[in-house]
Amino acid sequence: MSAHERVPNELWLEIFGLIPQDSLKHIHATDRKFANVSRALLFSHLVFHPYHLDQVERRLTLPSPDGVQLALDRLNFWSSDDISPYVRECTIAPRCWRAGEAGSVLLEHTDSPHILMISFMDLLAKFTALKKLSARQAHFTQAGLVSLCQLPLLTELATRWCDIVPGETIDATSLQLRTTKLLHHADVGVAWDEDKLCTLWLSIVHRECLQELQLTGSGSGFEGPAFPNVSRLGLGPNFSTMNRNLATLSRFPAVRKLWLQGLGEFQYQSTDASSLHGHDVLPLLQEYSGSWKPLHMFLPKPTLACLDIHFCTPEELSSQLREEYRHITSLYATLIDLDQQTLNTICTCLPELTELHIRIYTFDDAQREDGFNPKATSFFSTFGTTLTSLPPTLKRLAIAWEFEFESDDAQVVYPGPKHIPDFLAMRDKLRKRCPALRTLWLDGHHFIFRWRQLLDREEMEQQNEIKATEIENLRERFKDFWEGR
């Protein structure tokens, strides 16, 4: 027995998992043992293109007749008894195609526009080891839905802009989808109850099995029994119908992480004693992410600890902070501009923060005669002299400015050294105010100061405009820095 044959297959799998896919194909061809071991990696993910997508007209087309046959042959290979048991993940999506490119046929110019999609659905039952199915602009059939519900290991289903094959009759009476994660994305403006596939998923998914649900579009609530075990919920609601939205949220008593990003002006009316309020729903909520509009309804919840607020003005965020919320320990906010008054409001209303991360986007026309944009430098200069509002409990603090320029070739004026704040002195004042502070990131777009205290050492670095490349490299590594890696 050769040396490599004595190495367990599990160890080879770990080694091969670190090798690029193209190199793995060569290893697969060198040795019978390697071929058997690497097959589980080479054929773990099937990507299938049932249509072409005209990138100009944004319409679906079919490949040429030869292309259709090639796709069918490839599908038959992947669904064969030798290969299909290795498939753990499948992605269905149209292949991008440019107008004028040879080899595509308009769907209305063929008698079988969904031949590849129907063929895939007919063979779906062969992939008995499938755990994750992601579909974009795909069309489902009755046979495919039956097979989908019978897949024994399926844990995640994600559909985006999908539908039913035109003319297909769907009988959902005996269907039950036992997945733990369901994600469905529809066009903005399409209500959930007007989306055939969304309605279908909600009617057949096993409510006891489901642990994560995401529905985007423009929903205004839906009816039905509760989902007792969903702990992560994402919805794209219509905020003008918050009464119905609260009724929907009441069906998810186990949610700990909530994401809401919808359309419409916030409207809520407490019509009578039976009307639901924010404190009546989501009793276990720990994390909220998304729009600022419904924030005030959830802020009083004593279980809520973490906030992630997406794109809003300082005034919009301040309008939601109406009293002290000592149970909030983490805030991540993306704002359009920032002033010291807003920062004071945040710190006053959230006095027990241990983590504060604010990203600020502001427009810079790069045409001023008076030089560079002073917003970031002015803010940090003021910030350095008014630290008394910061919560003493802070352990991690990041404030990052990002300027949007009118064009990529706009003449950008950078602040000179005399305009860069004294970050070392600011760090020392911050540590005196916040003794638990361990991580600090101050980004003025053209300059960065970062510092952190590790168990065995202290790290500190400052980069200014003259080292723009280093600044970008630092930003790319922010997540590792922030998480202490």
Automatic annotation (TrEMBL):
Species per Swiss-Prot/TrEMBL record: Roridomyces roridus
Protein known as: F-box domain-containing protein
Gene3D superfamilies cross-referenced by the UniProt entry: Ribonuclease Inhibitor (3.80.10.10)
Superkingdom to which the source organism belongs: Eukaryota
Lineage of the organism: Eukaryota, Fungi, Dikarya, Basidiomycota, Agaricomycotina
